């Protein structure tokens, strides 16, 4: 299923894209993608740790007021955020070695980020601000996926990368 999604997104964001990143920029982003992943992982860890006490207190008051569904979405969102951060941590050394498995993990982490945004929106579905936040985050997710797929060829074996461009 994910291979099918990857193929469709590659067609949409690379093959049929109206604008291609220059090859030099693709190479530069590919070489330093591990640094971007490392920074994202550190920020994700710090954000998760900072949110833990707030989520604990918020869960207590939400449960006391009878908002059990909100508590579920709060904790589910945190677990998705932790999974997102863990994928970035695991991807970092693989990206440094220019391995396709590192690129795959970045792709999966983007999917986790989208899932996190949807879960947040579901937890606040009556809020207009949450709706616009979801739209804004989905727009940025599309931009992020564009860059991820534009540099995909840097992480493919050389023969597959040439066939991918055709």
Summarize the structure.
By secondary structure, the chain is mainly alpha-helical. The chain contains six helices and no strands. It has one domain.
Chain-wise SSE layout:
Elements: H1 2-15, H2 23-64, H3 68-96, H4 100-123, H5 128-150, H6 158-165
Helix pairs in contact: 1-5, 2-3, 3-4, 4-5
Description:
With 166 residues, the protein is mainly α. The chain has one domain (23-165). It has six helices and no strands. The chain has helices at residues 2-15, 23-64, 68-96, 100-123, 128-150, 158-165. It is elongated and about 60 Å long. The mean pLDDT is 87.
Keywords:
single chain; 166 residues; mainly alpha; 6 helices; 84% helix
Largest sheet: none
Task: Show unreliable segments.
Answer: none
Tally of structural domains: 1
β content, as a range?
under 5%
Q: What is the percent of helical residues?
A: over 70%
**Helix-strand makeup class:** mainly alpha
Number of strands: 0
């Amino acid at each position: 299923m994910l291979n099918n999604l990857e193929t469709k997104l590659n067609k949409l964001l690379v093959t049929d894209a109206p604008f291609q990143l220059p090859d030099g920029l693709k190479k530069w982003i590919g070489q330093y993608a591990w640094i971007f992943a490392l920074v994202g992982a550190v920020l994700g860890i710090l954000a998760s740790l900072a949110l833990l006490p707030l989520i604990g207190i918020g869960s207590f008051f939400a449960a006391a007021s009878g908002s059990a569904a909100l508590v579920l979405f709060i904790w589910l969102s945190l677990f998705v955020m932790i999974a997102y951060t863990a994928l970035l941590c695991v991807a970092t050394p693989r990206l440094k070695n220019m391995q396709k498995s590192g690129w795959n993990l970045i792709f999966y982490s983007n999917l986790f980020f989208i899932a996190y945004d949807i879960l947040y929106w579901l937890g606040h579905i009556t809020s207009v601000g949450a709706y616009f936040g979801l739209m804004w985050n989905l727009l940025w997710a599309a931009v992020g996926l564009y860059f991820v797929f534009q540099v995909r060829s840097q992480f493919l074996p050389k023969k597959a990368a040439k066939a991918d461009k055709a």
